[in-house]
UniProtKB/TrEMBL annotation:
Pfam families: Response_reg, SpoIIE. This is Sigma-B regulation protein RsbU (Phosphoserine phosphatase). GO terms for biological process: phosphorelay signal transduction system. The keyword Ligase does not apply. Signal peptide: none annotated. It comes from Paracoccus seriniphilus. The lineage of its organism: Bacteria, Pseudomonadati, Pseudomonadota, Alphaproteobacteria, Rhodobacterales. Residues 22-138 form the Response regulatory domain. Residues 144-181 form a coiled coil. Keywords: Coiled coil, Hydrolase. GO terms for molecular function: phosphatase activity. InterPro entries: Bact_Sigma-Reg (IPR052016), CheY-like_superfamily (IPR011006), PPM-type-like_dom_sf (IPR036457), PPM-type_phosphatase-like_dom (IPR001932), Sig_transdc_resp-reg_receiver (IPR001789).
């Protein structure tokens, strides 16, 4: 005992971290309590002592000890019960709890651990054993302090990230308003032709764009674009493309030739223009798909280019649906692509739907894609609806199909030839 007592009372052998720590000794035994108290004070602890659990709880409230040594048997309650109460008390820092044991068996030790004890020390207490428990407790307390400091720094970093994210969200909300403003008109009427637009980004901003503009007195141009990727990069390219396809003839690429008295740029030539622009002027791996078409609203004649965009769906007045085009190559991928033009007639009572892959590739978790077959089914089911009512019903059907999980932008153009009345096919029951 003398060697152990000398070792623990020697400042050179006691860890420097012990200084300024607060300890609490809860014991009613005189000699053992005196010995432990001496060891703790020699180790540099500010020591508080208590005879019972009630006194100890009051001392905890006053002194907030870092290290607690408690006898198993106390006048008013068992040591494990006192430990359980101590663990439920509000504290700013962790307290290392050691139970002093005498004849406790394995079940007692298990109850002590369940109550929240960190360690056990057999009586009679030796200085060497006490020093070992103190060293273990100091390691735990030091690690807890470092973790607490790391949590404080992490929380501060998270707070800064939240502030930055809030600023980004505000900017993206404003960007969404600006992007939605790129589509100035959501519908237009040209003679018997009615055009309706749907544009719904998956996030704040997206890479889809739809629109139309008049070409002379008897023609109208309409387009649908889908830029690869999502977010800011796709949105910026979409904004630039919208300038080239705006209603202003001095900016619209398709209408520039018309200013000199020549005809508007043909659909395939417009696709080649954009392809050259992407490869020569854009320092990016981004590409986009496109449908661009001219429609003569007097005759219903359509001249169209399909550049990698999903197939347009042509629904006749009898409700039958067929796909238009052969797919084509995306814009901005190959130096010398082939863009085929398609010509057909939109007859009275018929309608043409151009939808982005955010619609045809909608998919429930673990399920199959909606596909063009699913889109055809939606068109037949909603044959009695037109204009924005049809587009909203289609958007609702797609969202229901993918159970609200929509990772891609959703856009569409509906062109309807309203001359005459379009009969609504009824199912036979």
């Amino acid at each position: 005992m003398k060697t152990a007592s000398t070792a623990i009372s020697n400042p050179a052998n006691a860890p420097r971290a012990f200084a300024l720590r607060r300890a609490l000794l809860v014991d009613q035994r005189g000699e053992d309590r005196t010995r432990i108290a001496h060891y703790l004070r020699s180790a540099g602890y500010q020591l508080a002592e208590a005879d019972s659990a009630a006194q100890a709880l009051e001392a905890c409230r006053r002194h907030d000890p870092d290290l607690i040594f408690s006898a198993w048997e106390l006048p008013d309650r068992k040591g494990p019960e006192f430990c359980r109460i101590f663990r439920t008390s509000p504290r700013k820092v962790y307290g290392y709890f050691v139970l002093l044991t005498s004849d406790q068996d394995e079940q007692d030790i298990r109850r002590g651990l369940e109550a929240g004890a960190d360690d056990f020390l057999d009586r009679p207490v030796s200085g060497r054993e006490l020093l070992a428990r103190i060293s273990a407790g100091e390691r735990i307390l030091r690690i807890e302090k470092e973790l607490r400091a790391s949590n404080v720094r992490l929380q501060a970093a998270l707070d800064k990230l939240k502030e930055a994210q809030s600023a980004i969200d505000r900017d993206l909300r404003e960007a969404r308003k600006l992007q939605q403003g790129l589509v100035r008109e959501r519908s237009g009427k040209f003679g018997p032709i009615q055009i309706s637009l749907l544009l719904r980004p998956a996030g704040h901003i997206g890479g889809d764009l739809v629109g139309f503009f008049p070409i002379g007195k008897d023609r109208v141009g309409f387009y649908a674009l889908d830029v690869s990727g999502h977010g800011v990069t796709a949105a910026l390219l979409t904004a630039q493309l919208s300038v080239h396809l705006s209603g202003a003839s001095d900016q619209n690429v398709a209408l520039r030739a018309a200013q000199t008295g020549c005809d508007a740029v043909p659909p395939a030539a417009l696709a080649h223009f954009f392809n050259n622009m992407m490869l020569e002027e854009m320092s990016t791996d981004t590409y986009f798909t496109m449908i661009y078409a001219e429609l003569n609203h007097s005759t219903g004649a359509v001249r169209m280019v399909q550049a990698g965009h999903p197939h347009p769906m042509l629904q006749q007045s009898d409700g039958q649906v067929r796909r238009i085009g052969r797919g084509g190559m995306p814009i901005g991928v190959l130096e010398n692509p082939i863009f085929d033009e398609i010509e057909f007639t939109l007859k009275p009572g018929a309608r043409l739907l151009i939808a982005s892959d955010g619609i045809t590739e909608a998919c429930p978790p673990g399920g199959r894609l909606l596909g063009e077959e699913g889109l055809e089914a939606i068109m037949r089911t909603n044959a009695f609806l037109g204009g924005h009512a049809f587009l909203e019903s289609m958007a609702w059907s797609v969202s229901e199909y993918c159970r609200g999980e929509r990772p891609d932008d959703m856009s569409a153009i509906l062109i309807e030839h309203a001359a005459g009345s379009r009969p609504v096919p009824l199912r036979q029951t």
